[in-house]
Amino acid sequence: MTKPKLIWLNVSFFLITFLIAIIAVPYRAFTHGFDSAEISFAVICFIYCGMSITAGYHRLWSHKTYQAHWSLRLIFALGGAFALQNSILHWCSDHRIHHKHVDNNGVDPYSAKMGFWYSHIGWMLREYQASRYTDYTNVRDIQKDPIVAWQHKYYFQLMILMNVGIPLAFGLWHGNILNSLLLVGFLRLVLSHHTTFFINSLAHTWGKQTYTDKNTARDNGFLAFLTFGEGYHNFHHIFENDYRNGIRWWQFDPTKWLIKSCEYIKLTSQLRVSPEDRIAKTKLAMVLKRSQQKLKSHPDAEKLLERLQYEYDTLVHKINEYYAVRKQVFALKKQQLVEDVENSEPMKQYQVLKQRLADQQRSWQLFTANIA
Q1: What is the DSSP letter of 136?
Q2: 149-181 tens-digit pLDDT
Q3: How far apart are CA 85 and CA 90, in angstroms?
Q4: Most buried residue among 132, 164, 246, 290 by CB atoms closer than 10 A?
Q5: SS3 for 126?
Q6: 188-200 vs 70-83: helix axis angle to the nearest 10?
Q7: What's the whole-number mean pLDDT along residues 96-122?
Q8: Rounded-to-integer distance, Cα 253 and Cα 50, Å
Q9: How far apart are CA 291 and CA 295, in angstroms?
Q10: CA dist list (Å): 127 to 21, 105, 109, 193, 209
């Protein structure tokens, strides 16, 4: 089978920038060195590029998980051009196709089932799906955003302005243009590219399938550290409309923290979150599925499977009861329909159900742990 034509511009660009980053930058560091100001500014630019992709391109425009003030959208649009990952419109179109047809070779732009190299960078090196390059019918909603339309129209000029202008301006101000071009220009760009590309490759091959095994997406805390929180990818693929990827307070998700922090200063609003009971039951269903698979070859499989199903059904029932009453309590607090909410009947029922749920969770965890 004949492979599609190489896109020589992309091949040359990725190769040259990569070689400069791994050869010229270390050589310059060894022979002349980089000072703290240069390193600090490069790190700041790397964070700016990364967060513009994760908070802007991904969670704001691709999935519309929150609303943002025009000033923040402009900052993300410029940062996206700085990250040099195509326009908002093009990036979001690709990403929505990926979610709709995940792992479907020939349709998913960067399907992980085509191999690590393909999903990481190979999909951009050949004309695999040239017919869709200018088809933006799946992003008509964000075309209505004037900042998205402006960035798409002037993407080439903005890309040059950000990727040449910023390193050059810093170099002139700081007094070392070559150091700035190498560190802030080339190394920052290559790191920005490949950490983002890890989401298409590593996040579909390395980690846990916590919520679903119907696609290749994985949860990986270490990868989240490299990608500003995007490493909790298994969660994201089933709860894509949630502005969070790391839903626990201890999970590293600076993109979530940025979006939430901006809400306090009125730069973001309408932050969307998935229902907690749905998250809990989705995760629980995966534990049930894996436990059932482990018990199939057990000598006493029939009896243990029956017990497992009972524990699962009981826990789901208690989850439903608990969250139903919790919603009532929250509604009372919000609407102030009961003068003393803390001593109200719904609150008493809530406390009882909370304890019953905790007891059932312990029973479930003990039983499934013994299976493992």
Answers
A1: -
A2: 999 999 999 999 999 999 999 999 999 999 999
A3: 9
A4: 246
A5: strand
A6: 100
A7: 96
A8: 12
A9: 6
A10: 26, 14, 11, 19, 31
Mean residue pLDDT of the chain comes to 93
- Spatial CA neighbour of 170 closest among 161, 162, 180, 157: 180
Stretch 101-127: mean pLDDT: 95
Q: Are 62 and 95 in contact (CB under 8 A)?
A: yes
Quote the percentage of the chain above a pLDDT of 90. Answer: 80
CA distance 14 to 125: 9
Task: Please tell me the distance from the alpha carbon of residue 39 to that of residue 33, in angstroms, as a whole number.
Answer: 10
Q: Specify the pLDDT at position 339.
A: 61
Residue 349: alpha-carbon gap to chain centroid: 37
Domain boundaries, the chain: 8-269, 276-371
- Helices then strands, counting H and E runs in the chain, come out as 18, 2
Nearest to 319 by CA among 348, 289, 282: 282
DSSP 1: -
Give strand ranges (E) for the chain: 67-68, 268-269
3-state helix, strand, coil in the chain (%, to 5): 70, 0, 25
Kindly report, residue by residue over 293-307, the tens digit of the pLDDT: 988 888 888 888 999
Cβ-count burial 39-69 (b if 16+ within 10 Å, e if not): eebbeebbbbbbbbbbbbbbbbbbbbbbebe
pTM above 0.85, yes or no: yes
Q: Tokens 């029956």 belong to which residue?
A: 306
Nearest to 198 by CA among 166, 227, 171: 227
- Residue recorded with tokens 């017919």: 131
**Residues ≥6 apart with Cβ < 8 Å to 67:** 268, 269, 270
- Beta-carbon contacts of residue 227 (< 8 Å; ≥ 6 apart): 50, 54, 195, 196, 198, 199, 203
